[in-house]
Amino acid sequence: SPIPVLETGFVRAVDYMGGDSGIVQGARVSYGKGTRSTSDDRGLIRYLMRHRHTSPFELAVLKLHVRAPIFVTRQWFRHRTASINEYSARYSVLEKEFYFPRPEDIAAQSTNNKQGRADALPPEQAQQVLDILRDDASRCYDHYLDLLNEDENGEKRDPDRPAIARELARMNLPVNIMTQFYWQINLWNLLHFLRLRADSHAQYEIRAYADAILQIVQKWAPLTYEAFTDYMRDAVLLSGPAL
Amino acid sequence: SPIPVLETGFVRAVDYMGGDSGIVQGARVSYGKGTRSTSDDRGLIRYLMRHRHTSPFELAVLKLHVRAPIFVTRQWFRHRTASINEYSARYSVLEKEFYFPRPEDIAAQSTNNKQGRADALPPEQAQQVLDILRDDASRCYDHYLDLLNEDENGEKRDPDRPAIARELARMNLPVNIMTQFYWQINLWNLLHFLRLRADSHAQYEIRAYADAILQIVQKWAPLTYEAFTDYMRDAVLLSGPAL
Amino acid sequence: SPIPVLETGFVRAVDYMGGDSGIVQGARVSYGKGTRSTSDDRGLIRYLMRHRHTSPFELAVLKLHVRAPIFVTRQWFRHRTASINEYSARYSVLEKEFYFPRPEDIAAQSTNNKQGRADALPPEQAQQVLDILRDDASRCYDHYLDLLNEDENGEKRDPDRPAIARELARMNLPVNIMTQFYWQINLWNLLHFLRLRADSHAQYEIRAYADAILQIVQKWAPLTYEAFTDYMRDAVLLSGPAL
Amino acid sequence: SPIPVLETGFVRAVDYMGGDSGIVQGARVSYGKGTRSTSDDRGLIRYLMRHRHTSPFELAVLKLHVRAPIFVTRQWFRHRTASINEYSARYSVLEKEFYFPRPEDIAAQSTNNKQGRADALPPEQAQQVLDILRDDASRCYDHYLDLLNEDENGEKRDPDRPAIARELARMNLPVNIMTQFYWQINLWNLLHFLRLRADSHAQYEIRAYADAILQIVQKWAPLTYEAFTDYMRDAVLLSGPAL
Ligand SMILES: Cc1cc2nc3c(=O)[nH]c(=O)nc-3n(C[C@H](O)[C@H](O)[C@H](O)COP(=O)(O)OP(=O)(O)OC[C@H]3O[C@@H](n4cnc5c(N)ncnc54)[C@H](O)[C@@H]3O)c2cc1C
Ligand SMILES: Cc1cc2nc3c(=O)[nH]c(=O)nc-3n(C[C@H](O)[C@H](O)[C@H](O)COP(=O)(O)OP(=O)(O)OC[C@H]3O[C@@H](n4cnc5c(N)ncnc54)[C@H](O)[C@@H]3O)c2cc1C
Ligand SMILES: Cc1cc2nc3c(=O)[nH]c(=O)nc-3n(C[C@H](O)[C@H](O)[C@H](O)COP(=O)(O)OP(=O)(O)OC[C@H]3O[C@@H](n4cnc5c(N)ncnc54)[C@H](O)[C@@H]3O)c2cc1C
Ligand SMILES: Cc1cc2nc3c(=O)[nH]c(=O)nc-3n(C[C@H](O)[C@H](O)[C@H](O)COP(=O)(O)OP(=O)(O)OC[C@H]3O[C@@H](n4cnc5c(N)ncnc54)[C@H](O)[C@@H]3O)c2cc1C
After folding, report:
1. Does residue B112 register a pLDDT over 90?
2. Predicted model pTM
3. Is D104 within 8 Å of D126 (Cβ atoms)?
4. How far from D238 is each of A189, A239, D17, D80, D196, CA to CA, in Å?
5. Where are the beta strands (DSSP E) in D70-188?
6. Sign of the four-CA dihedral A73, A132, B177, D52
7. How far apart are CA C76 and CA C209, in angstroms?
8. What average pLDDT score do residues C125-135 get?
9. Which of ligand 3's atoms lies nearest the C-alpha of D202?
10. Please, what is the average pLDDT of chain D?
11. Which band of pLDDT confidence, cut at 50, 70 and 90, is reported for residue A30?
């Protein structure tokens, strides 16, 4: 069942292959008789993670169904080591579903972090921002339908007017409109994605998705999740000069 | 020097490595003494292309600087076998540059091709479409600056109002706003991209970019370009049952 | 259960994710409401294959356990779009298992196909070849154990002599020694592998593995297998000039 | 000019694209006007490396020509993010060139490091090892030529005997025979390769190649080389629990 994210979005685990025990099984093939001594699954998984023996983690695979705003997918799809099938706005009409931040998430530009946010706005200023966002989204979407010559039920509006091609009409839609996609990725690349996107440098909105996926990973592959937390997520890199 | 595409866009060849002769040199390493008999460069390149010996084409690399609308980059970046550096709307403010189709490119939805266009609209209907697109883009952009509390010269508008975080404000922008990026790809994957995106099934707007890139390839690697045309672009696949 | 290949080798399906129905499900997400009209699963899969809509096939994933000679894995691992865990000859001692061709597979160098075989040798000449191969393999392996100071049961031979490092001793082994590995690949890249390696241009030995994998695909995803056969395996590419 | 490695091997820089300044140029496109403040090239490159902003490093590309023993290429080609053209032992006859360790590199199996070496052997024991390796390599190679019915000059030996197919005859050759290949890789993936293969856990023989490539990188992209040394090579990862 889908985990709700950002109110109108979700992440849903559709299918998976392998998990902690498949990782161990794959690693043991590499080590052959050499693993006789290795104590237990947890120890082996932590060893693999600590030494960045990443290939066994690649044997596990997850398939998700995701609904997210376009500006989030623009960050998401920069991760090239995954397989994607996205809803096509050339084939089909996009629904009137947008992402609007909660008032408490509307924040000022950070001055020290060029790509980040500072404090949240006072409520009534946040409300003004929201009004603008909602207004523009609504008007753009209405014009989108207008160009398509369709009403919200997909019925033709004016029988004498042509419908603009969907691939053209969608040009009018802002990047906070929702899209959806299937996403297949192996566990190693997923952890790499999560390290970058569940991180404080990532934009809040994609972080919300990364956090939901972390819950899925924790259930699916708890030993790997724990090793990831210790050796990737919470780990700190000390440079040569700093040492 | 940049090749203009879609009026406000462009494709510019920044750098490259190798080309026809580097491909031949790489292929000859594979064949070792076995290539003694192979006639000439053109013959060898056509042979490689015909038999899909793709690895020598991977030795040549191209780096482009591109300016394109977001909805085009969304199709473009689905090609995962490339390296990308895109303008960040978290770090910087997007400029007021949009793509608007020429009137003659504004076409109706095709009824037999679910992802394509049919005939162009009559001029005055096209003009109405353009008015909507321009209007909405303009209003959305103005609100974007408003949220950023900036004027078009980057000066603060109201000293007493906070600037919303750029990463949030950009949410209001439609997908026909222009972005730019550096793109590095090897020649084999570039040809694969061109086959898919210079094809009649591709949306007109990305096809315009693919056509510009084809010009670059033709100058850069003329023998490969010719072989591509004959054995990939103009080639036809006959299925087993059809034979 | 493992499918025997080349007598001492095998291919074993360990796990999989998805299949024909998962492909259809993924494709329908892309098309959204646009697929309402699409008839049935078989029709959709054939359509996807014919038009090289490859991304839905990437949603299905297969994991194999394989045992094969090193010279076959050298060809195999050139396919980069897969995840591999191989037996490590640094950690563990390789077993005394080699590939020797059957007498009827020992053939002369083809004179027109520089990378292929011509007719099989007369039986007694084939036998002489086999004697050489077996002899050298046996001597090299015995010296390998000798360097490791081990007998065939892994017991130390001479208590007073050091064991050479495994990573060094294995240098003495010929490329027809058997190794084993886990292999995880998505269905699209698997089909690409099969087209190249179940093809008559591929070396007989890797073709034998590809044929075994084809059996697995046929059972696992019969509609995709059929579409692959018609539109990839048995299809013929006609060049532009030839048309 | 080629850098000699392991006596009969080498690494030769054939071509490259970009370098430190191209990386900076690419990064500045991402940051847009946001980089106005960033001081200098060195500072920016160190910043990118420290924060693992890896995409700008992918814009630089290197092409090498390498000669190495097969057992080294088996480790090398596991790095999938590169393009390779290797000498084909199906098309051509392999030359009689092998790798033999120097006596001082012949070491005992480490007992605490399952995949590593301990102390070097006493000279006369090392000599015995070398005698075995040389002997077996020589015999196997002679039989290889014998199966090919060729002498060392490529002339037919016995006009009445068929030549075994090259792809079969090579089966008799040990993994310390030399092969050669062209290798094209972007700088980020090259650094990843170097971190793993210039590391003390890597086998000495591939480390020798990695060290030669490091020299090339240092000349080609000195600022990146320095940042790599500080933030990747000499850096230490402290786990969450350890902190
Ligand atoms: C006309 C048209 C219509 C389209 N419609 C849709 C649609 O409705 N919905 C949709 O989602 N997409 C759609 N696409 C996008 C399409 O599905 C591909 O994602 C896109 O064309 C990139 O193609 P590619 O995967 O072959 O290229 P690349 O990503 O460059 O990949 C090339 C090859 O590299 C290998 N490869 C690359 N990355 C990986 C990886 N991570 N793992 C394994 N192998 C990899 C594969 O062998 C792949 O075939 C459409 C494309 C076209 C041209
Ligand atoms: C906080 C933050 C800020 C960012 N800011 C910007 C920005 O301003 N501008 C911008 O353009 N991007 C930006 N990005 C995106 C970033 O540059 C990466 O593109 C993205 O994070 C994907 O990371 P990746 O390349 O490691 O992942 P993947 O694409 O999943 O790649 C993982 C690894 O696979 C290998 N690989 C994958 N594909 C290829 C290929 N085609 N060829 C060779 N090797 C390959 C590489 O080794 C790579 O390291 C930002 C990302 C983050 C997290
Ligand atoms: C000391 C040492 C010991 C080793 N021991 C063993 C062993 O016992 N057994 C064994 O089998 N191997 C072993 N290896 C090899 C190791 O498992 C890796 O295969 C090899 O080091 C390549 O590393 P990589 O995968 O990070 O590099 P690359 O293949 O270059 O990949 C870099 C990144 O690109 C992305 N990527 C590349 N290709 C794909 C793909 N097809 N799909 C998805 N993502 C992709 C991933 O994000 C990956 O992390 C060993 C390596 C070292 C250094
Ligand atoms: C009959 C035959 C003869 C051959 N002879 C030779 C020979 O003489 N010498 C030789 O060296 N090889 C030879 N090969 C190997 C061949 O060159 C390929 O390396 C091998 O077949 C793998 O094919 P591939 O690259 O299409 O597959 P994959 O590696 O699985 O790649 C599939 C696709 O994924 C994408 N991709 C994967 N990795 C990357 C990456 N790192 N960067 C960018 N894109 C990537 C590309 O689009 C590629 O087309 C031969 C192969 C065959 C079948």
Report:
1. no
2. 0.97
3. yes
4. 21, 11, 35, 28, 18
5. 83-86, 107-109, 117-120, 178-186
6. negative
7. 10
8. 97
9. 1
10. 95
11. confident
ipTM confidence: 0.97
pLDDT tens per residue across span C14-68: 999 999 999 999 999 988 765 555 568 999 999 999 999 999 999 999 999 999 9
- Whether residue B106 contacts residue B121, with contact meaning beta carbons closer than 8 Å, is answered with yes
- In 3D, which of A59, A57, A64 has the Cα closest to residue A84? A64
What's the average model confidence in pLDDT over D43-48? 95
D121-163 pLDDT, tens digit each: 999 999 999 999 999 999 999 999 999 999 999 999 999 899 9
SS (HEC) of chain C: CCEEECCCEEEEEEEEECCHHHHHHHHHHHHHHHHCCCCCHHHHHHHHHHCCCCHHHHHCEEEEEEEEEHHHHHHHCCCCCEEEEECCCCCCCCCCCECCCCHHHCEEECCCCCCCEEEECCHHHHHHHHHHHHHHHHHHHHHHHHHHCECCCCCECCCCCCCECHHHHHHHCECCEEEEEEEEEEHHHHHHHHHHHCCCCCCHHHHHHHHHHHHHHHHHCHHHHHHHHHHHHCCEEECCCCC
The position carrying tokens 């697109």 is B133
- Phi, psi of A81, rounded to the nearest 5 degrees: -90, 50
Residue nearest to atom 22 of ligand 3 (CA): D79
| C236, pLDDT greater than 90 | yes
Backbone angles phi, psi at D170, to 5 degrees: -65, -15
Give pLDDT tens digits for B159-205: 989 999 999 999 999 999 999 999 999 999 999 999 999 999 999 99
Alpha carbon of C82 to ligand 4 centroid (Å): 12
How many A from CA of D54 to the centre of ligand 3? 18
- What distance in Å separates the CA atoms of residue B106 and residue B118, rounded to the nearest whole number? 10
Mean pLDDT of all residues in B120-140: 97
Counting atoms of ligand 1 from 1, which one is nearest the CA of B189? 30
Which residue in this structure is represented by tokens 């005055």? B124
Q: Which of A26-35, A135-144, A207-216 has the lowest mean pLDDT?
A: A26-35
Q: Compute the C-alpha angle A25/A230/C83, nearest 5°.
A: 35
Give the model confidence (pLDDT) of D158-196 as tens digits: 998 999 999 999 999 999 999 999 999 999 999 999 999
Is A81 close to ligand 3, i.e. is its CB under 6 Å away? Answer: yes
Secondary structure of chain B in HEC code, one letter for each residue = CCEEECCCEEEEEEEEECCHHHHHHHHHHHHHHHHCCCCCHHHHHHHHHHCCCCHHHHHCEEEEEEEEEHHHHHHHCCCCCCEEEECCCCCCCCCCCECCCCHHHCEEECCCCCCCEEEECCHHHHHHHHHHHHHHHHHHHHHHHHHHCECCCCCECCCCCCCECHHHHHHHCECCEEEEEEEEEEHHHHHHHHHHHCCCCCCHHHHHHHHHHHHHHHHHCHHHHHHHHHHHHCCEEECCCCC
For residues D25-51, one letter each, b for 16 or more C-beta atoms within 10 angstroms of the residue's C-beta and e for the rest, the string is: bbbbbbbbebbeeeeebeebbbebbee
Q: How confident is residue C227, by pLDDT bands cut at 50, 70 and 90?
A: very high
Please give the structure tokens belonging to residue B213.
């890139």
D32 pLDDT more than 80 = no
Gap between the Cα atoms of C173 and C190, Å rounded: 30
**Given a cut of 90, is residue D111 above it in pLDDT?**
no
Bridge-based pairing state of the strands D3-5 and D9-17: antiparallel
Measuring from atom 48 of ligand 3, which residue has the nearest CA?
A189
Q: How far apart are the C-alpha atoms of A186 and A168, rounded to whole Å?
A: 35
- State how far residue A31 is from chain C, nearest Cα, in angstroms: 6
Helix (H) / strand (E) containing A223: helix A222-228
Q: How far apart are CA C30 and CA B78, in angstroms?
A: 13
Q: Which of A14, A59, A83 sits opposite C63 (nearest CB)?
A: A59
